[in-house]
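Morning. Coffee machine broken again, so started the prediction first thing and wrote up yesterday's gels while waiting. Chain of 387 residues, entered below exactly as on the submission form.
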Amino acid sequence: MKYFFAGLLLSTCMSVHAQRKVDVAKQLKLAAHQYHGMLQELGDTTTLFPQSINPDGSMKKMKSDWWCSGFFGGSLWYLYEYTKDTSLKSAAATWTEAVSKEQYNTGTHDLGFMLNCSFGNGYRITKNPAYRQVLLNGARSLSTRFNPAVGVIKSWNNFKGYKYPVIIDNMMNLELLCWATQTSGDKKFEDIARKHADKTIKNHFRPDYSSYHVVCYDSVGNVLAKMTAQGYADSSAWARGQAWGLYGYTMMYRETKDKRYLEQAKHIAAFYMHHPNLPADKIPYWDFNAPHSDNEPRDASAAAIVASALLELRGYVPAALGKTYTDFAEATLVSLSSPEYFAAEGNHHFLIKHCTGHLPGHSEIDTPLIYGDYYYIEALLRYNRIK
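Came back before lunch.
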């Protein structure tokens, strides 16, 4: 059955690529070693999920209702898929089940992150029917946050007094809805996803195809404000926001074959790849418009998301453009796999260093982030399938 990570498989039929510059086997072996260590550090308790490192040096852990709770189980599924290590499979199942109660959580838009990455990968690999039901329940819960009069899925319940804020990150959660339509035959899920994606194109993007972080609507769908929560300024291009948009529209093209989504993804990719403030190593500053200096924080998590997205997008475009995307993603993975960004040991067993979560909130600055690891592993797997 086709699933939302079908993009991992598409590169098996792609054109011949030049000599590899990233040793995927080595990096995934190191990743599996680090995650075995993380499992030992976490012990038998599965109520708190690895997230980052606290300023005092301890591991930062969060509950299952935090938007990142699905990434650890998802990474374990990916590592099991590559290594065939059954202990990783067992751990993946354990940490996936630990998120199960969130299938009924109607208070968040992030059920795609929470459930797709964990149960989605688990279902794709094992075809466990219980996982399928959790995903369908999650899609129903997510759908309750869609108001037809507004035309988009509500992200947060309140932001600076606005009652219907929508963030660019929300594009990532549409995958669960598309899958639910394909699995159940109920078209309402994909219809919601398409309407959200269409209105996001209309209101979230500037003429240069950079995106605002937050767009606030009234009760009938009029835009009241365009702002930021995690970026440098309302008018700036927050790096991870650009990554979410690129990945989200690449995925929406895969799921719907609507060429408008492909064109949107290509435009976002061009903005990101050719931005004059992008460092030579392809690891962006946390915001493209923040004052840049040697001490300005990078966001390696954004780089990992973009690398993974480009390695899928390459399969939907002519060969010459596809090679451009591949070369850029490869250069990004070279940087992420270097000692500067990849931790082969220590780091509380997280893989990727120098990520930025929420700089304006003074949270998770120049630190590992669990989703940086997840999309790095995914990008390696996609890169490995290039023939």
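The CA atoms of residues 27 and 337 lie 7 Å apart. Going to sketch it on the whiteboard this afternoon.
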